[in-house]
Amino acid sequence: MSRSTSVSVSVKRRVFKAAAAGAVAGMALLFAGCSASTADIRVYLSDDLQAAYGEVPALEADVAGVTEVQQRQLASISAADYFRPGNALRRSLAPVTLHFGLQQQGPYLISGDDKAWELWESRGASFIAVLCNLPDLTERTSEQGAAPAGADPRILLINMDDGYLKDSSEHLVLISSGGVLKIKEPPEASAALQQADGQ
């Protein structure tokens, strides 16, 4: 091999190594950005529940990351069916269950580093579902014309905007007499957030 050929090969090797190192560094930054992504979910109880029901009812609210298939299943059933004892869909979602009542009015926080996210991401979830067993809500809202046909206002399905389950944002959810709502600002004078226990 001539000297010029040897030098050329050596230069090509250095260029290749530099390019490979740059690619590895770029991937490291990409994954670092993904791991730093957070999607805190904060769930509040509305003050209007006491006026609507005469007291603060004992409630359960389920929060889970769901796939498109599971999202369609949830959109086709009522919250009453979902919370019925032994419901297979509820069991399969492995949700984080939040408990509300007179002595526990929240609010709750499911932080972006909660272990529940690992399960939801592993199943390929792209929606966040929040469901609450508010009593008799569907009948009352249907009579008032407040609930869209075929929809149960006690079931909220949040589509992650960028196609990833964790979309580097914060989701605020309000359980009210009108159903489960996604809100832009936290309710005024809300109590300190309680960390929810992931499954």
Automatic annotation (TrEMBL):
Residues 1-38 form the signal peptide. Keywords: Signal. The keyword Signal applies. The keyword Signal applies. This is Uncharacterized protein.
